[in-house]
Amino acid sequence: MTGGQAPAPHPGARHSARGAVAVMYRLTAGHRPAIAVATVFSVGASALGLAQPLLAQKIVDASGHGRALWPLLALLAALFLAEAATSALGRFLLERMGERVVRGLRLSLVSRLLRLEMREMGRHRSADLISRVTADTTLLREAVAQSLVDLVTGAAVATGAVVMMVLIDPLLLGLVILTVAVAAAIVASLLTGIRTAAERMQAAVGEIAADLERALGALPMVRTHCAEEREERCIGSRVEGSYEAGVRTAKLASVMSPVVEVAVQGSFLLVLVIGGMRVGRSDSLGDVVAFLLYASYLVVPLSSVFRTIGQIQRGMGAYQRVDEVLHLPVEPAGPGFAQEAPGETGECRKPASPSPSPAVPEPGEEPAPVLALSDVWFGYGPDRPVLRGVSLTVPHHRMVALVGRSGAGKSTVFSLVSRFYEPDGGAVLFDGRKASSMGRRECRSRVAVVDQSTHVVHGSLWDNITYGAPDASLPEVEEAVDRANLRPVVDRLPGGLACVLGERGGALSAGERQRVALARALLGEPSLLLLDEPTSHLDALNEAALSQVMQDITKRCAVLVIAHRLSTVQNADHIYVLDAGRVIASGRHDELLVRSDTYRELARAQSLRVSGAEGDAAAPSPVN
User: Which GO terms describe its cellular component (predicted)?
Assistant: First the structure.
């Protein structure tokens, strides 16, 4: 599979064996030349194998007439070795094709997951999505790589065997086919159940991964609340569900296997009994031996085909889950940006084509703000607006703050500015240009975000700081470290910038992880820095230091900061007060203490000094 789109499922393929095989075949699109070459080898091996019973017939007849056998035996050995070598090469080519198909699927899945719409990410559990890339594709690999091999070789051998058996004894062939047909009817009735059980088993495996990832990701909370047994029961119920689905699959498969074996053994017995009775009448012993060998070439491959179809049905259960992900909506490629091929990566800060520069203002004219929201409306669901006509501006080289109670819509503003979501009404503008007329990556190339989650990935401190700018030089990284006040952390860690931080940055405190995120953001030289609760994990001393850092950052870029702790933003150039999704007041700190009841209540709640009966603000200072 070479494209980013998965083949669409056949309309009637969900429980049809024929449809399942058709889907598996469509998965091989782009690999047909390799299949053709491998088929040639497989058919060649089958032809060499089909010649052996004829040679065995001649050997049996020659031994009865006292003729020399060693030339025929040598030729039989040569045919056997040639068949083995040719078959091995054909099988290798087909198995390699299967691996390539699954590689393409995995690359397509990774590409899709990394570009999913944020709404879709909120509807799915990340560990379950990961299991579709790993566990489901592994099961699918077995179906594609092994099953298609058996189908190709089995069909070729069985066809040749039928032709030769017709020439030798049509009556015996009819009896063998009757036995196989009965077995085939029973197997067909079991395939639907196998497919359904396999889908349930794979879904349960995904739920196990999701629940376990949730528990391990919050292991300190689990242990402090003595919830180990509760989580164990929860995950155990998922394991039981997987077990029950697996047992049902095994039950159906266990019924299918004896049916196939009875068909194989019954066919051989019919040939031996009826053929033996006819020796000396109409058939020679050589004919019976040849027919018996051809029966093995027919029945054994067909039994393999039956098992293969069952395996394909189990693989289709996995493919169904893979296909669901491949059809989830992704972020569209914006104007001027080419969609990457699956498996390729692109730096957010390197657009496919240069973006137009903002208009240069006339002399004496104020430049357009680096960010503006104009009457923006937005809701995560229908008829549930979170933002209600929000308008604000962030001028160049200024610090602007958003404050308000929890749930007022502050973080939603950041999500819209980062283009994770699109507004339902109004417009977001960068340097006077509507974001909707720009590619998402172009917008994001102007913005850096330090959010409350402070993401730190497994790797060295250097890897985390340079995540958005992997080609940064040492002096650039050192400058970002100093600007983020991260130098004490670098000096403390063994190995400095080369120190491996561990899973989720376990070697760092929450405040240190925030500073790592800040250094990472500053290294990209953004036009706008978004800070979401930057002091939520800092003590009073580090909070004061960060306040000074934010003032220094405005010399290089604009800053939009969310803060519950007003001491962090009391020196901001402008403050917007949000309440229930609306801007209810704006101004500087001392002005808002006078004009805004909501702001004054927030200040009092945080023990910021408010003096005067009229609400005049004294020089406020944090009390920690």
Answer: plasma membrane
Contact between 85 and 326 under an 8 Å Cβ cutoff? The reply is no
Given this model, what pLDDT does residue 585 score?
A: 92
Q: Terminal CA-to-CA distance of the chain, rounded, Å?
A: 60
Cα(450)–Cα(467) distance, integer angstroms: 13
Q: What is the domain partition of the chain in residue ranges?
A: 17-326, 367-440+572-624
Q: What single DSSP character describes residue 623?
A: -
Cα–Cα dist 393/413, whole Å: 12
pLDDT at 279: 57
Angle in degrees, CA 51, 25, 129, rounded to 5? 135
Q: Are strands 371-381 and 384-394 parallel, antiparallel or unpaired?
A: antiparallel
Two structure tokens written together for 488: 């004490």
Q: Which of 538, 587, 63 is nearest to 600 (CA)?
A: 587
What whole-number distance in Å separates Cα of residue 79 and Cα of residue 84?
Answer: 9
Task: Give the DSSP per-residue string, 307-375.
Answer: HHHHHHHHHHHHHHHHHHHHTS-BPPP-TT-PPPPTT----TTS-SSPPPPPPPPPTTPPPPPSEEEEE
Q: Are strands 433-434 and 384-394 parallel, antiparallel or unpaired?
A: unpaired
The verdict on pTM exceeding 0.85 is no
| E-assigned strand segments in 476-550 | 528-532
State the Cα–Cα distance between residues 313 and 21, nearest whole angstrom: 9
Six-digit token string for 315: 């693989």
What distance in Å separates the CA atoms of residue 302 and residue 293, rounded to the nearest whole number? 14
Task: Give the chain's largest Cα–Cα span.
Answer: 128
Q: Which CATH architecture has domain 17-326?
A: Up-down Bundle (1.20)
pLDDT digits (tens, 9 = 90+) for 407-458: 888 889 998 998 888 899 999 999 989 988 888 888 888 888 888 777 777 7
* Residues 22 and 7 sit within 8 Å (Cβ to Cβ): no
Instruction: Report the alpha-carbon distance of residue 322 to residue 284 in Å, rounded.
Output: 56
Contact, 301 vs 158, CB < 8 A?
Answer: yes
For residue 552, what are its two tokens? 């220094």
d(C-alpha 370, C-alpha 432), whole Å: 8
Low-confidence ranges of the chain (pLDDT < 50): 1-15, 336-360, 609-624
**Cβ(489)–Cβ(519) below 8 Å:** no
Instruction: Give CATH superfamily name and number for 367-440+572-624.
Output: P-loop containing nucleotide triphosphate hydrolases (3.40.50.300)
Output the 3-class SS for 445-462.
CCEEEECCCCCCCCCEHH
Q: How many Cβ atoms from other residues are within 10 Å of residue 317's Cβ?
A: 25
Query: Angle 70-114/285-326 helices, nearest 10 degrees?
Result: 10
The SS3 of residue 606 is coil
152: nearest Cα among 71, 36, 236, 243: 36
Query: What pLDDT does 620 receive?
Result: 40
